[in-house]
Amino acid sequence: MAQPIELQPQAITVQELAAINSRQVPERYIREGVGDLDASFPVLDVPTIDLQLLASSSSTSGDEFDKLRSALSSYGCIQAINHGITSAFLDKLREVARQFFALPSEEKKKYSREIGSIEGYGNDMILSEHQILDWTDRLYLILRPEDKQTLKFWPENPESFRGILNDYSTKLHVILEVLLKAMARSLNLEENQFLQQYGDQATMQARCNFYPICPRPDQVLGVKPHADGSVITMLLQDKEVEGLQVLKDDQWFNVPIIPQALLINIGDQAEIMSNGIFKSPVHRVVTNSERERITLAVFCIPHPDQEIQPVEKLINETHPRLYKKVKDYVSL
User: Fold this and answer.
1) Cα separation of 88 and 85, whole Å?
2) DSSP letter string over 292-327?
3) Is residue 264 part of a domain?
4) Start and end of every Fe2OG dioxygenase domain (predicted)?
């Protein structure tokens, strides 16, 4: 399927808009039904999963597999702890992202994305004259395979940015393997069932998100409601400022921050592989009238030629096949 055609680039970043006018929001960003400014959304009690237990063969790991299956079936997301990445490293990662977005506009725009491409620094593609835009700027980079990295989009300032992000991708690859094996085992499958479908030519794509202060959080979203087209998405939340919300039972819930945890959610392709047992959650990002917010999302996506389909052992008379075989799902 042909990629969508971008009509024109945005002439100004959201960060620049927020600096120019701290009291008003352009009409292109205003949505109906975002929510009452004074409303307090309930908190989603996202299950905390110990990845060390999932990776071990100890007698206590069985309960953690049951907990994982329940979490991914009911919520579609987990707070992953004991993942092997130190809090100090995660803080460095947050800091280099913050330093990048604090650079002068001229410096950041050296890494601007090109028309029709998601990679690089920028904001929403404008695909329609009536499109409502998200209140966010982002830096989108391909992490893996390393030979697919486009280094002209990788900031050289701050100086440590490239090295830290590369280290992070290596650490996440280890976590991803543990998680995919554990997901299979939680469904009583051979542990490589999901890993084989994910494939060894998959991509890992990072999106550093910057959400400026917004004067109208009752009318403007940081990111519109959506479900991820990935297999797995791993999110490093801002350490202090919440903003992520998940839709459950037709109600929006705030996702709390656990500073040392990774918020991991199922993408559509894992829902397909599990024949609908695991749920890809619809989520959005709300804005904040007092504080800016920075997050780092990493999307784990099979190669476009890799076929994705429900695992045969998960198809039976009581649980019929729910999805057809797909390739290049994110472009559909």
Assistant:
1) 8
2) -EEEEEEEEE--TT--B---GGG--SSS------BS
3) yes
4) 202-302
